[in-house]
Amino acid sequence: MAGFRVPGPLAGELRVVPHPAVMLVLEFGAGEAAMEDAAGRLHRGSLVAGPGFGSGGGVRARGEQAECVQVRLSPVVAGTLLGVGPAELTGGAVSLDDLWGREAARTRERLHELPSWQDRFALMDALLARRCAARSPVDPAVAWAWKRIVASGGLVRIDHLATELGWSRKRLWSRFHAAVGLPPKSAAKLVRFDRAVHRMLGGGGAAQVAADSGYFDQSHLHRDVMTFTGSTPSAVVDEPFLTVDDRAWPTGVPR
Question: Where is the signal peptide (predicted)?
Fold first, then answer.
């Protein structure tokens, strides 16, 4: 998780770059934050967004004097923790008030009262642990498949996963999609994209990154980046949503 403070108005709108996690945003304090999706729908305040949220480059964040805690959750545990599965989010976002009711408001109030980010992170750790303990466990087979996809950088063959599980491709597709919110192949594509853009952000050239990340060639990488962000590889590495990652998410981010 990470804490963000916007002391004044955002200098322009912030493009949301998709990543392979469920995003939980808890806004607190006197400011205001919102996200506008590609259809022009405005999501104000605290929200939950599915993996790949922002695909196509049509989601923008804006705010003024806003403070929030953002948590990135593995899709395979998100349903257990949040009370809504990623499949129900379908790449979009829902209000946390609609999911948690009064608990969302109480959590925001407590976050506002606490004096430091570390105290706020500890509060969120305890809250999520409590919610996890009170709900059904994660499907171990789907969790295993997700970990294999992430560990491979999205390069593992989906038919190999099905074979190792002793499942048909159809069964893997159905169980995985229900738990993660994406079919296995789409999830692998998102993980591969995320790994590639962060390598470019670290200074890697597009041609070398394409070769190392399992793309056919540089134009294949270019098409993938355009599909996910609506921007070119050279432009996307300057997106503020990405450039804060190494400071905001030094460990634990799926890449």
Answer: none
Question: Do the Cβ atoms of 253 and 245 come closer than 8 Å?
Answer: yes
Outline where DSSP puts E strands in 40-109. Answer: 42-44, 47-49, 60-73, 93-95
Q: Are 53 and 91 in contact (CB under 8 A)?
A: yes
Lookup result for tokens 């963000």: 4
Contact status, residue 3 vs residue 26, Cβ threshold 8 Å: no
> In sequence order, which residues have a C-beta less than 8 Å from that of residue 131 and are 6 or more positions away?
80, 81, 82, 83
- What the block records as the tokens of 117 is 């980010």
Q: Which of 74, 204, 210, 82 is nearest to 149 (CA)?
A: 74
The C-alpha atoms of residue 14 and residue 248 are separated, in whole angstroms, by: 16
**Dihedral sign, Cα of residue 106, residue 93, residue 123, residue 132:** positive
The number of CA neighbours under 13 Å toward the Cβ of 63 is 24
Phi and psi angles of residue 104, each rounded to the nearest 5 degrees, phi first: -65, -45
pTM of the shown model: 0.90
Structural domains of the chain ordered from first start: 2-133 (2.60.120), 140-248 (1.10.10.60)
Question: Model confidence over 55-104: pLDDT tens digits?
Answer: 888 788 877 778 899 999 999 888 888 888 788 887 688 889 988 999 99
For the chain, the first-to-last Cα distance in angstroms comes to 15
Pairwise CA distance, residues 219 & 222, whole Å: 5
Rounded Cα gap, residues 241 and 74, in angstroms: 19
